[in-house]
Amino acid sequence: MTAVGDGVDASWIGGRVWAFTGTGGAYVEQALAPVEEIVPLPVNLSAVDAVTLGSSGVVAHFGLRHAHFAPGETVLVRGAAGSIGIMAVQLAARGGAAAVAVTTSSAERGEQLRRLGATHVLDRSGDGGEPAPAGYDVIIDVVAGKGMPSFFDRLNPNGRMVAVGAVAGQPPADFGTKIMAAFQKSMSFAAFSAATVTGADRRAVRSEQFAAASRGEIETVVHELLPLDAAVLAHQKMDAGEVFARIVLTP
To answer: Which of these, 56, 57, 2, lies nearest to 29 by C-alpha position?
Structure first.
């Protein structure tokens, strides 16, 4: 941190921090952030690791909490090759899931996800060439889109699906009819945004996850490092579906 505003403790200056600026997205060499959204970094955690984990880890953590995930339950992460999905896989495995299935687009990505804690690799439709759980207690959905309603068929009785993203766009307007058609299974659906979590709780989880990553208990996965002036190329790679995990831009 290079400077602080009026009334802010000057001891922040010179420290290594992760910060949430509150903007929808931008690429700059310097930025302003509220002090309430700043988290100090452990000495042995790189800035690249912090960027990779800072946003995705909180969403995955509280997304699983929103789903009331408990040890021994089966979990499916739909769209697991992105940074949120990768963290959800690791956190579910660390949390004692009986099985952690993932949907992804290739066998290569599936093997990478197995190394991170996945026990079953499925294709994008949720099918796989190996025995997988017949149903899931929790589905963490990063994708949404028109294919989302079909995954209600994969929920166990009392199963919970939580959408933490919509990279494929909005689901069909009538997607809730799937839940009503299986009324006796008591399934539920929820959307989750980290904006509904208090700043104090977000900071606490980020601090805990940064510490865990510094100890090697959580793995941060970076697809590629690119210079700041290659932001357009980074978006082109993401749009082409070439990215596993996260691209990090460096100043």
So the answer is: 2
